[in-house]
């Protein structure tokens, strides 16, 4: 076999091999993400963990969640390169953090901050049966109602 033909066949093999394994890996990652966002009311894809965020943007989202006392599932994208890329493909959003509510992508840090400041986050949480702690904090106490 001549050298050029051999190199060509080798590159074809490598390309198809890469495509096959990448397609498999993407399908598995997509399924994992899909399951996670559909079985939890709130999911935060972040860098680091809520107790120790490894990026200021992720930390800001954690602080917002904490203020509202939102129970959520989190996933550290730094521990899984497939998820780090996979979540960007899944939501068509280029950065981390990413917040999902009721299976829907809601936004990253800037959007969450905006929703927190406008009161929209309280409303979105209410829609999925989560009562924000900020709402409770501003409600008049029983004795004040009398
Ligand atoms: N403006 C963005 C800030 C987030 C951001 O810029 N994230 C960067 C740095 S942490 C990122 O995810 N880069 C791609 C990557 O690290 O995979 C937001 O609102 O969430």
TrEMBL record:
Pfam families: Glutaredoxin. Keywords: 2Fe-2S, Iron, Iron-sulfur, Metal-binding, Redox-active center. CDD domains: GRX_PICOT_like. Residues 42-106 form the Glutaredoxin domain. It comes from the Eukaryota. Signal peptide: none annotated. InterPro entries: Glutaredoxin, GRX_PICOT-like, Monothiol_GRX-rel, Thioredoxin-like_sf. PANTHER family: GLUTAREDOXIN FAMILY MEMBER, GLUTAREDOXIN-RELATED PROTEIN 5, MITOCHONDRIAL. This is Glutaredoxin domain-containing protein. It comes from Chilo suppressalis (Asiatic rice borer moth).
